[in-house]
Amino acid sequence: MQESEKTMCDPEPLENAEAMSPDTQDSKGPAGDEENLGPVPSAPPLPQEHTPCPRPKLVFHTQLAHGSPTGRIHGFTNVKELYAKIAEVFNISASEILFCTLNSHKVDMQKLLGGQIGLEDFIFAHVRGETKEVEVVKTEDALGLTITDNGAGFAFIKRIKEGSTIDRLKTVCVGDHIEAVNDQSIVGCRHYEVAKMLKEQLRGTPFTLRLVEPKKAFDMIGQRTRAPKSSEGKMVSGKETLRLRSKGSATVEEIPNEFEDKAIEKVDDLLESYMGIRDPELATTIVEAGKNKKSPDDFAEALDSVLGDFGFPDVFLIDVWEALGDVKNGRI
Fold it and tell me: Which residues 6+ apart lie within 8 Å of 8 measured at CB?
């Protein structure tokens, strides 16, 4: 939930704004010249200066998801700064925060905080709970999990496919942070790097996952949730959102229109299909890069300028370009 702390902007009193009348002017000249003096003209008023009104300060309410008093935070421009502000309010380390959800204290991936916060959203921070180690034997090419990250160095499980290798391991849950693979720490790795590492594990060869589950409130103990596919990343309320960026300042923007909503969802699906990740913020950036582009080459060049580090395969770019065209032309 957000508050606006508004500053009233009253113009300061003007000095010398009123001209002196002829009676108050010193109209005396040299002796003997009084008869030749006419009325003394008044000075024109000074232009009124208006003090610009500063932009209202956006203040959001926050709690720890397992239970805490309500705190108030403001002045952040990206996810790392957001976590630092939350940590400061609750006197914890920012590295204790695994991820945040909006308007729900539960581990609900439909409410996961991504790159946008509705101006009326309430922020719940999920912190480190118990650590567990799980031995996994890969019986098929895909493990059956989808990975995302919190934008601050922690990758975690966003979806578990029913009937998959991971689904059969009942101790592994949506929301678990993947801290290490075979005792190799992956803290600081992006979601696509972790997904690639897991994909490269050999079939039939056991490997170990060290997981950290979010600390649970009493009413959350025992739940093992899977994220449904629809509406992921749509946490906004009201008509505007605060858009957080990994580079640059946060900006207040209108909520995505219907075209953008559908395009972002479709691109997020393609990210999961090709890379085993879901990331509405990344999908939003890809959609923005494809806006108003006339050809696939123009789109590829624009995408490379902002996301060149990802090294997307050509077939992925072609599928994204076709999906954007389908959405624009109403075929999706």
Answer: none
The answer to whether 91 touches 45, Cβ cutoff 8 Å, is no
Query: Which is it for the CA torsion 234, 237, 239, 242, positive or negative?
Result: negative
Helix (H, G, I), strand (E, B), or coil: what is residue 173? coil
| Beta partners for residue 4, in sequence order | 58
- CA 329 to CA 332: how far, in whole Å? 8
Task: Read off the pLDDT of residues 190-235 as tens digits, 9 standing for 90 and up.
Answer: 888 998 899 899 989 999 999 999 998 755 544 444 444 433 333 4
- Residues contacting 212, CB < 8 A, separation 6+: 98, 128, 129, 130, 131, 132, 176, 177, 179
How many C-beta atoms surround the C-beta of residue 180 within 10 A? 16
Q: 13-22, 149-158, 189-198, 235-244: which has the minimum mean pLDDT?
A: 13-22
Rg of the chain's alpha carbons, rounded to an integer? Answer: 29
pLDDT in tens, 304-325: 887 777 778 788 888 888 888 8
As given in the structure block, the two tokens for residue 11 are 């113009």
* Burial annotation 14-44 (CB, 10 A radius, 16+ → b, else e): eeeeeeeeeeeeeeeeeeeeeeeeeeeeeee
- Pure H helices in the chain: 79-90, 191-199, 258-275, 280-290, 296-307, 314-328
Which residues 6+ apart lie within 8 Å of 23 measured at CB? Answer: none
Return the bridge partners of 3, or none. 59
What pTM does this model have?
0.64
120-144, pLDDT tens digit by residue? Answer: 899 999 999 999 999 999 888 889 8
Full 3-state SS string of 95-119: HHEEEEEECCCCCCHHHECCCEEEC
Instruction: Give the DSSP letter of residue 246.
Output: S
